[in-house]
Structures are given as C-alpha cells and as structure tokens.
C-alpha cells in the first residue's frame, strides 16, 4: 500500500471518529435503528482496512437515513457542535463519489452553519460579499476563485444591481 493511500485511509478514519459520536447521538434522538460500528465504538486508533471500509459503509447508511430536517434540528439544538464537527460533516458530504439531492441540501445547510459560526454576530448586510463569504469559509474549503466567469457577466446587473442615487 502506498503512503498516499495510507494517509488517505488515516484521514478518512479520523473523520469517521469525529462524525461517529454525533451520528450516534442523532440516531438515538430520532430513533434511527442501525447497529453500531464496533471499531468506531471502541475507539480503535489504527484500524485495519476492513474497519475503515465498515466505517465508510456505516456512515453511508446513516447518511441515507438522516433527513435534512433531522440534521438541521439536531445541529441547532445540541451542545456538541464545534467548527471541527461542522467542517468534517461538510467535507464528508463534499467528498462523496456520488451525491444525492439530500446530500446537496445537507451541504447547503452546513455551509450556512459554518458561515454563521465564523461571521461576527452584528454583520452588516452590505459587508456580505462573495469575497467575504469565501474568506469566512476558507478554513473549510480552502482558497476559492470568486471571479465571475465571462459568460456570466451579462447577468451581473440582474442579480447584483448597482445602487442608484435617490431621486
């Protein structure tokens, strides 16, 4: 096994270890019946490949069963939400090979949650620009190119009308 493969498996396992307690709590709260993932349950630090695959399968099963309204309610009412958890959840959904419409809704919600956690509480609406949002989400998403593609420039005034002086 190559070092990059080992590093990728290690990163996937670490993410699963961050997600597992929250997914388990969410399953208890909403009575989602799924057998526990034994190696995640016991806190194994360096699992064999089979354990990583079992954890991946367990998380995929949970993702299919967790509805967006359940995730929203859980994350907005629990005390265990941290920036690390939100970021790990977001990256977990972004890195899926195949995403469902439900995953898209979860990604949208998690982006908003991360932004609201990072932004100051008294943020002026005029200060919220694409560049500002990209800067606030950079810890999770990395550097993002926010330039408007040439083919979209004609629509810029439709969605972002320039302020006109009062008559």
Give your account of this protein's structure.
With 167 residues, the protein is mainly α. It has one domain (3-121). Helix content is 63%, strand content 0%. Helix 5 packs antiparallel against helix 6 (101-118). The N and C termini lie far apart (70 Å). Residues 163-167 have low confidence and may be disordered.
Mean pLDDT figure: 86
Helices and strands: which structural class?
mainly alpha
Number of helices: 8
In the residues, how many domains can be counted?
1
Q: How far apart, in Å, are the first and last alpha carbons?
A: 70 Å
Number of strands: 0
As a percent range, the share of helical residues equals 55-70%
- Rough outline: globular
Radius of gyration: 19 Å
SS strand fraction: under 5%
Poorly predicted tracts of residues: 163-167
SSE order in H/E notation?
Answer: HHHHHHHH
Q: What's the story with the biggest beta sheet?
A: none
What is this entry, summarized?
The protein has 167 residues and is mostly helical. 63% of the residues lie in helices and 0% in strands.
Mind sketching the topology for me?
Elements (H helix, E strand, L loop, with lengths): L2 H27 L8 H5 L6 H17 L2 H10 L5 H12 L6 H18 L11 H12 L14 H4 L8
Helix pairs in contact: 1-3, 1-5, 5-6, 6-7
């Amino acid at each position: 096994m190559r070092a990059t493969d080992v590093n990728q498996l290690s990163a996937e396992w670490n993410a699963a270890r961050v997600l597992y307690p929250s997914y388990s709590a969410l399953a208890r709260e909403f009575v989602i019946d799924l057998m526990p993932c034994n190696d995640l349950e016991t806190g194994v630090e360096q699992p064999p490949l089979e354990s990583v695959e079992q954890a991946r399968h367990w998380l995929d099963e949970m993702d299919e069963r967790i509805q967006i309204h359940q995730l929203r309610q859980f994350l907005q009412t629990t005390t265990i939400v941290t920036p690390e958890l939100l970021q790990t959840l977001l990256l977990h959904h972004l890195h899926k090979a195949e995403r469902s419409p439900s995953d898209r809704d979860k990604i949208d919600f998690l982006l908003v949650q991360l932004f609201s956690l990072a932004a100051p509480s008294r943020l002026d609406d005029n200060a919220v620009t694409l560049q500002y949002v990209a800067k606030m989400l950079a810890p999770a998403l990395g550097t993002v190119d926010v330039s408007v593609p040439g083919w979209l420039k004609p629509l810029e005034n439709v969605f972002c009308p320039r302020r006109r002086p009062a008559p």
